[in-house]
Amino acid sequence: MEIKMKIAEKHPFLDNYPLKNGLKYLIIGTCPPSLELRKEKFKIDYYYGNAGSLWNIISGIYKINLKNKSKEEKLVVILNWQKEYSIGIVDTLKKYARLKPKSSADADLIIEYDGYNHNLKTYILDNNDKIEKILFTSNGNCNSAFSTFKIIMGDSFNKIDPDKLIIDLPSPSGSSNTSYFNYNDENTLGIEPNLYNYILNEKEDRIDELQKRWSIKAKKMKFKGNEKKKLKCQVSKEF
Questions:
Q1: If one looks up domain 9-179 in CATH, what number appears?
Q2: Which among 124, 178, 194, 230 has most CB atoms closer than 10 A?
Q3: HEC-encoded secondary structure of the chain
């Protein structure tokens, strides 16, 4: 059965924020949520602008201040951070539709050939010798960032050094990011092991803050455990 793109969306950021030549790092996704969802959830009118998303983690690690700022001020801080660290952000799709209007899942995207961001291929080939890492926000299904990137690149994909490709970057969704801080392992101070190792090696000055956070969390866990024991004892006595 043919699926027609009844409501096509145009990518809201690609034209306004083109990649600059010579960047060392690229973060590549597919496309932002629909306009309706962005109006509901976005705190910044930019890539990954939803509340509690990627930028909250970045601001914590790199100590960039996004608090008590307007949308416009936050965007200036983010763009300056990208410039300082030579980081470009881009998506693989420029036009698309969705099987479910409010879905932000890659699997629900409907894409035609002219909907791919084919300019990305030109950029990659022109800057291949300067790019050190390419990070993808999704991998797995045929519409993921990594899969659509390979479609765009075609045979030229083989010209990219595999060591440059990082296909397991945490999703920029708020719920996914929160999960990286919900571990109960004292050895990693309650955060995802790979993230802990990165902070330990690259941002050691933040370890004290994580230790304080873990101390508070450990006390709460102990309190909850004691409460459960009390409840279990009470139930046992009643029976």
A1: 3.40.470
A2: 124
A3: CCCCCCCCEECCCCCCCCCCCCCCEEEEECCCCCHHHHHHHECCCCCCCECCCHHHHHHHHHCCCCCCCCHHHHHHHHHHHHHHHCEEEEECECEEEECCCCCCCHHHEECCHHHECCHHHHHHHHHCCCCCEEEECCCCCCCCHHHHHHHHHHHHHHHCCHHHEECCCCCCCHHHHHHCCCCCCHHHCCCCHHHHHHHHHHCHHHHHHHHHHHHHHHHHHHHHHHHHHHHHHHHHHHC
